[in-house]
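User: Structure please.
Assistant: Input sequence and predicted structure:
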Amino acid sequence: MAYPVRLFKPGYWYHVFTRGQRKEPLFFSPVDRIAYLSFLDHEFYRNDARLGSYCLMVNHLHLLVRMGEVPLGDIFQTVHMKYARYFNKKRDTVGHVFQGRPGMKIVLKDDYLQQLVIYIHNNPVEANLVQKPLQYDWSSWHWFCNGRITEIRTAEYPPGFTDQNRGPRFMNLLKSDFTLSGDKNYWGTSEQWDEIERRKSGREGRKFREKRGKSSLGEIAQQVSDQFEIEIDMLKSNSQKTEIVAARREAMGRMYEEGYGPTEIGKFFNQTPSSVVHAYEKWIKT
């Protein structure tokens, strides 16, 4: 079944949510949750994304994310690939950990965004795990009440929350009643929806995304080919010669650090995204 078209708009906030395969647990211990947040923070930091709120339940999670220049689909593909490898290795299992790709909804109204912050933190209450959000250890409520955000480099208060008002505003919103509503993909006014539709109809995926200040994939590949004194066609081949593998790994690593996603790099080399991530992990150790 084909997935619906997604619009990734730099600088906008998104509600991201996902669950475990067949609704099975994603986290069995505090260490698992710390590992997930670590993978998330690393990729957000590398791709200039920001984490505005989070709640890690047992078999699902909710995040509020401000996107940078790199589409969130690319970022979460890498994060979830790394976590799945960690999860399966730790438990000596195989197979999918997450149930498909995560849901992502763009938020177009600041007042709705603030309600979404409360919705995310109320998940443990709705699940009857605790009576109050502040009793749940694995959410970002303490960012708002106590201002402790040093454990995650990419933490950022969403619009409407400042250093001066975050605590009182957060607690007041927790007491309010609201119902999430809106289109299955987007939230906002009809005028904003029309703008999004116009932008979407004028693009065809990522290939028209502007990469300001970045070297192209071809330019990076040519630089590596020159460095290793091999033909670029050989670099893109499936050769397993030691020097070719090293050069290919170098090129993939540079592309990854430049901000390209594993899917995009994989298409360039006609390889799978997981092969790209594996090559990158090998590259950073050399």
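Strands lie at 13-19, 50-56, 60-66, 103-107, 186-187.
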